[in-house]
Design a protein that fits this description.
single chain, 192 residues, mainly alpha, Arp2/3 complex 21 kDa subunit ARPC3, 4% strand
Length: 192
Amino acid sequence: MNRNLSLLRMTAAALLIAVGIVIPMVSPVKIVIEPMSFTLASHVAIFIAMFISPMAGIAVAAGTTLGFFIAGFPLVVVLRAASHLIFTTLGALYLKARPQTLGSVGASQCFSLVVGLIHAAAEVAVVFLFYFYHADQTVAQNFMTVRVLLGLVGLGTIVHSMVDFAIAYIVYQALIRQRNLRRLFLTPPETA
């Protein structure tokens, strides 16, 4: 039984990686305002993988990074995608320890906000390092860059992360209602 569950989780992770690679390439809702980019649903596969297991989450985060690279996004966007390994690992480990978090809309939204904050902090750090060490700017330009960085990348990432989490949570709720898929996820809520 455990072998079948492992195979099911590995197959689901592979499918989510494929979805994560395709979304940045074909999404009709893409907004790129350097250094920020918004691709609707680009984190959905990662969040669903986090609901499965930490290893699935990590594999899908790495796979979606490849998707942004293949799609030809700027290097800073690809590096931001690579930073998803941080929030994915922390979030998936938390869910593994406390799977009941997904059983409540309120708890899952609090989780989404915390993950969004971690997500934003990692992306802001990547963009900060990328631009501040690759640019010869004056103090005034640096101040403007920090404002743009915190606004577009920081706040934008929190909102984008929470929207994609909400989409993933809706998909998760639909999937756990399927008896044959319920065991795929970390202890689904009994109310499903």
